[in-house]
Write a structure and sequence with these properties.
The complex is a heterodimer. Chain A is mainly alpha-helical. Chain A has one domain: ABC transporter involved in vitamin B12 uptake, BtuC (Orthogonal Bundle). Chain B has one domain: ABC transporter involved in vitamin B12 uptake, BtuC (Orthogonal Bundle), CATH 1.10.3470. In chain B, helix 1 packs parallel to helix 13 and helix 4 runs parallel beside helix 11. The longest helix of chain B has 37 residues. Chain B is globular, with a radius of gyration of 21 Å. The relative contact order of chain B is 0.16. The chains are: A mainly alpha, B mainly alpha. At the A-B interface, helix 6, helix 7, helix 12 and helix 14 of A face helix 6, helix 7, helix 14 and helix 15 of B. Chain B: Pfam families: FecCD. Chain B: It is a multi-pass membrane protein. Chain B: This is Iron ABC transporter permease.
């Protein structure tokens, strides 16, 4: 059955009546084109100048000097990580915002990032791990545990209060884990020195192999999250109506939430906390493709990677020869987007 | 006079009486915790000795600990707790949303980001840092309110913009920490966690002046906030100019939150939780004085625990408020769902 949520309660409805009818095929075509441009830029631009011809030669397997090959390989890796992380965080944002009917929901607000951060700090402190390969499993475990705790806390509240309860539970978990992180770091300079490079959020210095490590989790997460479009549309109508329409609301919601949690956990494990993408991308995409969650999900798969990859590319340029991490650039370029959207929104 | 009028009057009296009892009880709690914090440290000081030292007598050994460490920290805990808590309660009440405390909306973070930037990268100290922190908080508050739209009542918008700004500001803080050498980064981290470890009497005086001026004003103004709940037009009909009132409340909230942040950093949870706790204690009524007392008690107790709980290690007070605040929030969620949900 198809349920089209035109004016979703609790959701910004300003764009609903505009009747944007961009066909899904156009969304996909435009998305592919923009992603291609972003990827090309990411491969061609960097702190070290490499001639575009050399990049192409290296990519197609031709003979190039070793240093050029190394640079191109690292650019390929970070582009790949950026694509995966961008898609994961942004899709997670759509699902969380849809499920909680809370336009603010995103991995950071729900405490997932800080839970991962806590696990990473514990890993650094107790097991002396350093290096992204070691962080992955700590971050993944921390993110999943935190997300489940927040979900359970939210379930304590009556259904109608769940969006606010979840955000508050997220805030509680965030403050607690931030406190523990602070307690560990104020007395351990070495751990701080390692941790501060993780917490800015970056896609640099991660080999493609790490993506393969978390690939099974990512795959399950994407399948669950991307297939939740019609569930999200139903949730947008309100629980009573959804039940009346015969959807098994609870099961579907739990599956969608599980998908979102897996995606957020993988993204944080790969890149550290990249907070802004999950918040802003769903709103931008909704403004373009309209309120149908299935189309929003499709659009987000493209828009999220574009934001992260472009942010990473910009970060190599703005402060050359040093780099600004993608997490920071994402926040800086994401904010005006959000502000512009909020100006036109019909939220009260 | 009809029986109904008498019944209403009696009910109102009951509410006021309960409110008075609550304030007296909270005040006694704050005084008790203050004495504990100031007198009962690793080095115990008798009440009489404390009075003598405050009035100018020097007692070798005790004087240094009391006058330079425990007493200023106790004073600062009261001031900072009251400032954060009253600012949080007033803002949550004005925006009628339990999420809308200055720390969640990035106002506190505006102050910390500006201060961390000035301290770590520019090497500033003292009053200029406080001014920069204030400017940061004003900047965030002005942006948030600028986007609230002409109606002014669009709190959803304000929260969205505020959370967005908070994300940007925290990445600024992370970036600054990354640029600094690790010693400075650690100093900054202690401050960012919220610490009373290095307060001076001049800072206490400054914050005391701010609290003495702003807190009573805030108490008076917030009494009328309920009228805003009726909508701006109806409020205007009742003689309340909603826009100007929001401006006054915001200015006071920013002043209190930024001044406290400039001295001891953002102490987790105090601004966010004091309002809901006070509301729960006073059975659903917003009370800025009660919230201020709750905040003062919270910071006093947390500072005592942070200083003495683990022998040999003094943690920043924000570590303890963060740890202790989470269960309190969960308790509020479970036991007082209604009060959080309805939010004003």
């Amino acid at each position: 059955m198809t349920v089209r949520a035109t004016t979703a309660p609790g959701m910004p409805a300003a764009h609903a009546e505009r009747g944007t009818r961009v066909p899904t095929s156009a969304v996909v075509a435009g998305g592919v084109a923009v992603v291609a441009v972003a990827v090309a830029l990411s491969l061609l631009v960097g702190t070290q100048a490499v001639a575009p011809a050399d990049v192409v030669t290296a990519l197609t397997g031709g003979a190039v000097p070793d240093d050029v090959a190394g640079i191109v390989a690292s650019r390929v890796d970070r582009t790949l990580v950026g694509l995966v992380v961008g898609a994961a965080v942004a899709v997670c944002g759509v699902v969380l915002q849809g499920l909680t009917r809370n336009p603010l929901a995103e991995p950071g607000i729900l405490g997932i990032n800080s839970g991962a951060a806590l696990a990473v700090v514990v890993g650094i402190k107790l097991f002396a791990i350093s290096g992204v390969g070691g962080y992955v499993w700590f971050a993944l475990a921390g993110a999943i545990v935190t997300a489940v705790v927040v979900q359970l806390l939210a379930l304590l509240a009556p259904v109608r209060a769940q969006p606010v309860t979840m955000a508050l539970a997220g805030a509680a978990v965030m403050a607690t884990s931030t406190s523990i992180v602070g307690a560990i770091l104020v007395s351990d300079q070495g751990a701080l020195d390692v941790f501060r490079f993780w917490q800015v959020g970056s896609v640099a210095g991660r080999g493609a192999g790490i993506v393969l490590d978390v690939a099974p989790f990512l795959l399950v997460g994407f399948v669950l999250a991307l297939s939740s479009g019609s569930v999200l549309n139903t949730v947008a109508l309100g629980d009573d109506l959804a039940r009346g329409l015969g959807q098994r609301v609870l099961v579907h919601r739990l599956l969608a939430a599980a998908g979102a949690i897996l995606l957020a956990a993988c993204a944080t494990a790969l890149a550290g906390p990249i907070a802004f993408v999950g918040l802003v991308v769903p709103h931008v995409v909704r403004a373009v493709v309209g309120p149908d969650h299935r189309r929003i999900l499709v659009g987000t798969v493209f828009a999220g990677p574009v934001l992260v990859v472009v942010a990473d590319t910009l970060g190599r340029v703005v402060a050359a020869p040093s780099e600004v991490q993608a997490g920071i650039i994402c926040a800086v370029i994401g904010a005006p987007f959000l502000v512009g959207l909020v100006r036109r929104m019909d939220v009260t | 006079m009809s029986a109904a009028v008498l019944a209403v009057r009696e009910a109102r009296r009951g509410v006021h009486r309960r409110q008075r009892v609550l304030l007296v009880a909270l005040g006694a709690l704050v005084v008790g915790l203050f004495l504990v914090r100031a007198l009962l440290g690793d080095y115990r000081i008798s009440f009489v000795d404390g009075i003598r030292m405050v009035t100018g007598t020097t007692i070798p050994g005790a004087s240094f600990i009391f006058m330079e460490s425990t007493l200023p920290r106790a004073c600062m805990a009261v001031l900072a707790g009251a400032a954060f808590a009253s600012a949080g309660a007033a803002y949550q009440s004005m925006l009628r949303n339990p999420l809308a405390s200055p720390d969640v909306l990035g106002i506190t973070l505006g102050a910390s980001a500006a201060a961390v930037f000035a301290v770590v990268l520019l090497g500033w100290t003292g009053t200029p840092v406080a001014l920069v922190a204030f400017a940061g908080a004003v900047g965030v508050a002005a942006t948030i309110h600028g986007f609230a739209g002409r109606g002014g009542a669009a709190t959803g918008r304000m929260i969205l913009v505020g959370v967005g700004l908070a994300a940007v500001l925290s990445s600024v803080v992370h970036w600054v920490l990354l640029r600094a050498d690790v010693y400075r980064a650690q100093d900054a981290l202690v401050w960012l966690t919220g610490s009373l470890g290095s307060v001076s009497w001049s800072e206490i005086t400054r914050l005391a002046v701010v609290v003495a001026v702003a807190l009573p004003l805030l108490v008076v103004v917030t009494r009328q906030l309920g009228v805003l709940g009726l909508g701006d037009d109806l409020a205007a009909g009742l003689g309340v100019r909603a826009g100007r009132m929001r401006l006054v409340v915001t200015a006071l909230v920013v002043l209190l939150a930024a001044s406290a942040t400039a001295v001891c950093g953002p102490i987790a949870f105090v601004g966010f939780l004091s309002g809901p706790i006070a509301r729960r204690l006073s059975r659903g009524r917003t009370s800025v004085p009660a919230a201020a007392l709750v905040g003062a008690a919270m910071v006093l107790a947390a500072d005592h625990v942070s200083a003495y709980a683990v022998p040999g290690t003094a943690y920043p007070v924000g570590v303890v408020t963060g740890l202790a605040g989470a269960p309190v929030l969960v308790w509020l969620l479970v036991a007082g769902r209604r009060s959080l949900q309805e939010a004003s």
